Every structure is written in structure tokens, then in C-alpha cells.
Amino acid sequence: MIKMDVLSLIRRWHLREKMPIREISRRTKLSRNTITKYLVSGEVEPKYPERRSPSQLDPYTEQLRAMLCRNQSTPRKQKISVREMHVRLVAMGYPGSYNRVAAFARGWRRAEHERLLTASRKAFVPLVFAPGEAFQFDWSEDWVRVGGEKVKLQVAQFKLSHSRAFVLRAYWKQCHEMLFDAHNQAFALFGGVPRRGIYDNMKTAVDKVREGKRRDVNARFTAMVSHYLFAADFCNPASGWEKGQIEKNVQDSRRRVWNAVPQHFKCLDELNTWLEQRCKRLWQELRHPEQRRRTIAEVLQDELPTLMPVPVPFDGFIEQTKRVTPTCLVHVERNRYSVPASFAGRTVSVRLYPGRVVFVAEGQQIAEHVRCINRSHDAGRTLYDWRHYLSVVQRKPGALRNGAPFLELPDGFRTLQQQLLQRAGGDKEMVEILALVLRHDEQAVLTAVELALESGAANKQHILNLLSRLLGQAPPAPVDAPPALALQVEPVADMARYDHLRRTRHAS
What we know:
Elements: H1 4-16, H2 21-28, H3 32-41, H4 61-72, H5 82-92, H6 98-120, E1 134-146, E2 149-160, E3 166-171, H7 176-190, E4 196-199, E5 206-209, E6 215-217, H8 219-228, E7 231-234, H9 244-256, H10 268-285, H11 296-303, E8 318-323, E9 329-332, E10 335-338, E11 347-352, E12 356-361, E13 364-370, E14 382-383, H12 390-395, H13 411-420, H14 426-434, H15 442-455, H16 460-471, H17 496-507
Helix pairs in contact: 5-6, 13-14, 13-15, 15-16
């Protein structure tokens, strides 16, 4: 086998300079037959003949290939190793080593991977959307430092298919209530509602995927769609190109948004405020992919008149039924929330929102708490409202001293409690003062308590007087007495009468 540069030289000497083969042979020290062979073949580069040495594995390749194919479609726990395949081939009569079997398996896997990649390279038809026609939605995951801790957040992403305006909003979890809130926020930010929404078959919307385009859609998701009056379209399974705009937006957002994110945020609301401002800024900066002379914000202004008006936000809660414990607590997602004591042992409805938990009974809201999202696997937290336990301590004042809900009293109430509990009957007096918040503004009662503490006369009567002054309560109106009760002799203010009485008393 000659080298590439030698073959090039031979062809140039003979074909361009018309040098005889004999002279070429003399110069290159190659035989004339060799030179003639390469010139006749017309090859411009030497080709090495494929060498294939017979292998002991050759008679068993079909059996090994069948085992690899079966293994690929077998559940993970039931797969067999390549070493086990070697053992089975030995039982069939294979005399070779394990290394040759392992090399064949590696080559088969590489070829299979390449085959799948080639099969996935398909052609697509570019899509065009009219103004106000559709939006696309998808979830993504990103890491951000919130509250001093690096956490993985679920990000709801919306994109208008015509103007390409996009919105990102972060949540702790992918839940129905998060999905509904994301729609409320996105439509408000866009300034309108498109006529169609394009989704994948996410569990927060689709309960079951049936044949063709038929879907069993979640009832609450259907209610949200009905509220906003748009139609929901779901892509075919494993067909991400049907909503390629939002798929690309998920990729672009990591470069355009998350790479520019600040070091940390105090809370999730602060992050979402920053995301909203960042998206609006990018609308002004980015060019429309089809209308290159215009920005996304300019195209969005043209699209706005074609969008449906935004109604009142959808009341996107998820409702559960729970029983209240004897300690007036309701267990929700490993956390515990207090409700008024009058509902102990009864069943109440729990409405879950992204940031709050609302408790409803007898058609009325009875309690509300900030929602605690427990991302660990511990026992969770207990969130008290001490007002819920006032009816209990009115009957059992002694429970006030060590009651867990009353550890969260405002500072003024706690200072007053420390003073009153040192007196006899202080428990009862403190309960009566706390019960004032059931009839009056809590801040006014707290101000009266603080003023009483400053004056050094921290007692119930003084606090009531101060509260009356703070509330500006007018004195009671005079009562008009009937004529039958009119005095015949009007009293006369005469201080000299007291001197007369004093002399009479001492004389006796």
C-alpha cells in the first residue's frame, strides 16, 4: 500500500507531465505493475482493503443480538447483564471469552443509538398563527436561591403564538391551583385572552389520554377554560413539535432569563416580580423572528385588539374535606392549621390557593392562613391563630399560661400577660382583655394595652377606659323622663348645706 502523497505524485508525473511508467518506477522504487494498477483504477487516494478475521463469536451473533433486543424492551429489574449473556452463550457451545461478547454488546448499543437518532430526524411544516389565535403553555424546572437556600422551582411558561410575547412565573410545585394562578397572572400581563390554548398532556389538565385527540380533561381545568372562554388543544403524546414555540422558549429562557437572575431573593413573590419585569424588558429588546424590523412589544400592540377581554380572575382553588381535631387543628399536606374552637370535631372544607389556605363551613369562611409548602419529609409545621382559642380559655382560663397558640401573641399582650399572671385572678383578667378583640379593632385594643403599660396601671378597668377614648365613643344620650316622673322641687347647688351637715355630725 502506497502513501497518499506518492500516489498524487505518480498521477501528476504520468497524466500531466507524460512521464513514462519506467521512469516513474525508477524514481519511486515501485514496480511498474503497481504503478499501472493505480493509474488504471483511477483512484485519487489509496484504499485499504477491509480485513475481517474470523471470530469464535460469529456462529453465535444472532443469538446474542436476540438477547440484546429482548433486554432493551424488558423492565429494568428483569434485565440481564452482559456477563449473564456470556454464560448462556457458553452453555450453547461458545468457546470464547467474555471480553469479545462485551465488545459486541457495546458496538450493538452504539449502532442502535445512532439508528434511533436517525429515525428521530424528521421534517416539519412551519406553522403560522393569526393574531389572537393561540397561546402555548409548558412547565419547566430551574434552580434559584430563595430565602438563603438554593431550591428547585416549577416555572409556568406562556407564549403568544403570533407576537411571541412570553411570561414566566415560578411556583413551589406543579399543582392545579398553581396552574390556575399562572393563567390569571399571564392573561392580566398580556392584556387579553387568545381564542385557543395549546398544551401537552400534563397531569394537571388531562386525567387520561384516549385514542386520537380524545382526552378525559380534569373538571377544574375545564371550569377554568370555560371561565376564560378559550378552547384547549392537547398535543399528541411525544409530539413536542406541535408546540415548538414554547419548547424553544424553555431553552431560550435559561440563557435570557435565568443566566441574568440576581444572586438571591427574599421570597417567591420577589422573584416573580423580577421575572415579570425581565419579560417586559425582553419584549422591548428582542426582534420578532418573522417581522425582523419590529420588536415583540410592537407586534404585541397590534395583536391586543384581537384578544378577548380579560374577565375577573378565575377562583382557582382546589377543595378538600377535612375533619377538625379536638385541638381545633386541620391537617393539610403534613402541616396543621387552626380554626375556631366551635368547629372542633366537625367537618370543614379546605380551599387551597398558591399562597393561602381558606377554611369554609356552613357556606361561610371561618379561617384563613398563609399556606406553608413543606418541601422536606419532616413532620411539618403548626400554624395557630390565638383568636380561635379565646372561647376555650374563657371557660378554662388556666390554659392561657402554657397554651401553645398564645406563644404568638403580640409583644404588648405578652408583656401584659407576664404582669397579670403574677396576680391572683390574673388569668381570668387577661382572658377578658384578649376577648376585647372579638368586639373591637385589634390594633386599637393593643394600643390601649401599650398605653396602660406605659402609665404603670396595667389593669382591665384602665384598659377599658383607654380603649373607650381611642375609639372616640360618645357619651350616652340623655334620657327624656316622662312628665309623671318630673321633680316638684328642683335641687339647688348650695355648698353651705355640707357645712351644716358637718356641724350637726360632730355635735352628735
